[in-house]
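Newbie here. two chains, one complex. Structure please?
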Amino acid sequence: MKRSSHRDLVALLLCLGVLSLLPAVIDTRRMPYLFDVLFSVNVAVLLASSWNILGGFAGQVSFGHAGFAGIGAYAVALLPHHLQWSPWLSLPFAGIAAMIAAILVGGIAFRLRGPYFALSTLALAEVARLVVEGWRSFTEGTQGVVIQQKPLYLFEADGALFYITSLWLAGIALLAVITIGQSKSRYFLHAVGESEEAASALGVDAWRCKMSALLPSAFLAGMAGGILALHTGFLDPESAFSISRSVEPIILTVVGGIGTALGPVVGAVILVPACEFLRSRFPTGHLLLYGVLLVVFMRFMHGGILGMVRRKRL
Amino acid sequence: MDYISPTSIDARLAEEVALSRNVIALIIPFIILFPVTASAQETFRIGAPLPMTGAGAAFGEKFKKAYTMAIDEINAKGGVNGRKLQLVIDDTQAQPPLAVTSVKKLVTSDNVVALIGGWASGVALAVAPLAQELRTPYLLDHPALDDITRQGNDCVFRLQPTTGMYSAALEDFLINVVYERQKKPIKAAYLYVDNAFGQGVAKYGIMPFFKEHSDRFVLGVCEAYSEKALDYKPLLLKVKNASPDVIIFTSYLTDGILLGKQAKEVGLTAKLVSGTGAGHSMQDIYEKSGGAVEGYFSSGPWHGDVTSPAWKKWRGDWEAKYGYPPGEHEIEGYVAIQVLARALESVKSRDVVRQREELRVGLKRTTMVTIFGPVKFENFDGYTNQNRAYNLTALGQWIGGKLYQVWPKRVAERDPKY
């Protein structure tokens, strides 16, 4: 590992360590709303970073991250439901289930050229929703599944546990992004994203390269869906595969700075609390205001917030 | 796209870290400070997690009007124990994950003494255990899925009938009027929206009824449909080919409008067509379907004891204030606030945590007769704190653009056109 990688890893661990101490300073029982917002920020970082690996670094746009997140969510909901497992111990299976779905989608769609992968991901979310709705005996269909928020060994399933778990999951996502960003495969992803034909002509295995981005991306999206479902305590197909969950990571990444390691973090840290603030202050008009905010970002911050700040510095 | 140059990744990353650190540093105080809005209150705050945007916004608006009207009336008379009521609405977009955040904000930041509403059963299923955990009384006035009050939560109360009770008035009419006139087995068809509400009405209401009375009714076409579909004609033609005497729909508003319009277009008729509340009891279904639902029945939570002078006065006041006649949602929301106000009379403490506990006890002890009917929260048949609302259902019929209550006879506004 290069020295800079060590430095980044230490910095990341230090940040996570400091942020993990927040529940020790602020009582989560007195301020669960604050920790709920922070939890939402962490999940947004996780989901947006997972999208960024695929859409930002590999240039493979996914319009169906809700599919991976929803499959992960159902893994967390159904394993305890049928096998009486702890929902917390089911969490890693959320990522694995999403990865299996990614192998099925990517295995076929990545052999094709053009926009087929983007369309496939869009279809994945819809097909997964229809399967869940139709397979009532296993998934409870449209009635949804109640997830019991049982404690994790000695830890109570409270805001602190959700906050810290989501924080470290977001940290893992960031580490994955930084690792990919500093690895040799980053060059291959960049080349395939720019021109698959040219990269293939130079000997790059495009399919393998794209799959190497899709699998961690799907895994992290599945984990995001899983922890969110566990936090909500109830899951139904409509909310699990909601189109907004596919759009949200794209918006956060583009606003923060697409193709940059920390763009999704900046996007999530700014937009999630802003959205929550508007929702709580303007219950009927917040979506309009949020839309205006996004238009302003898009119009005046080409390249995202990081891109704009960088241009100002130059 | 603004890709990182492959030759300068380390430098770019270091620069990103520095930039992000500055940007995030500006934001963090904002995150930490904005939820801290709670202050000492001289009012009783009532938190309503409602869908004010998205597909359920029309219903959220109805409940907002109902709560506002009831609160204005109570406050005009001096409030409760000298304290005014204050409504705090938070938009859930009918999404359970958002509802969880909404409720935490309402309880811990807005310091509400009680939660009310929720509209969608999926939202209520997520909110109920959270209300229990936060020890905050949650009064349901519309989410109808039976399971919500079957989880043993002593902080969760339900005013209105459950989904299993929605079709009670229709079932009574089918047996005592439709079958009695025909005196031979009646062919029926049933289409229901494929969501928690539709499944609940089907599972706890319609299906058990047809199973129990299979000697008198033959259920032919029985299918769930997607709420998001736009073309229901193939399904309606299938029903038409079966020539049923009775057609029952369980629908929300948009699908109910489309079903009504398209049924007219394909020439689907029957001796009796009925919805089961929800979309079929809303004024919009008549207007936006261009009157296609004229003559349709709708069985669901009744619109109150329409024969009582108190109800007639309330209806007049409502129409004067909002310009349209109230339906099941309006009366449920209005009465829910009255019930909370009655229970709040037993709240003496100034501390909001104690107030919630006093209110919970107050709700449990509440026995009152409202324009919606009698209210008493009891534990029975696996339910906890459920109002025995079996008799609080009625059959309405759309006649000349108005939904008249036509069955049971004792509360009928006019005779049914059948």
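Moderator note: Chain A has a mean pLDDT of 88. The radius of gyration of chain A is 19 Å. Thread marked as resolved.
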